[in-house]
Hints:
CATH superfamily: Cytochrome c-like domain
Oligomer: single chain
Number of domains: 1
CATH architecture: Orthogonal Bundle
Number of strands: 2
Radius of gyration: 11 Å
CATH topology: Cytochrome Bc1 Complex, Chain D, domain 2
Order of helices and strands: HEEHHH
Bound molecules: heme C
Amino acid sequence: MASDWALVFFCSFTQVAKPPCAVCHTLAHAEAGGAVGPVLDELKPDAARVAKAMRNGIGAMPSYSAVLSAEQIDTVAFYVSTVSGR
Ligand code: HEC
């Protein structure tokens, strides 16, 4: 990992969130290859879209409101929107 902030983002996506996003989603930057939900590298969601899905849940994806703080949700949302192919 290049730097501390990158490590924080990486861990948020692959470990901190329960269940980890990586179980269900593919995101090359996080070395995630889950195949349950949409491929985030192709969807290229902006941060607001990621945060909304995490707060409310969507389809088979659970809500993270009870397990992550608002700040943690914003961190993951920023990370996904930044690295997903933009
Ligand atoms: C249990 C599997 C699962 C986990 C864990 C999961 N997702 Fe999802 N996710 C899905 C599925 C399935 C969809 C598609 C839902 C639909 O459109 O019906 C989805 C949709 C999304 C979308 C698109 C929302 C939209 O507006 O279309 C984003 C962004 C997303 N997930 C991000 C994440 C992030 C970030 C995490 C970790 C905090 C995560 N997901 C964890 C299964 C999962």
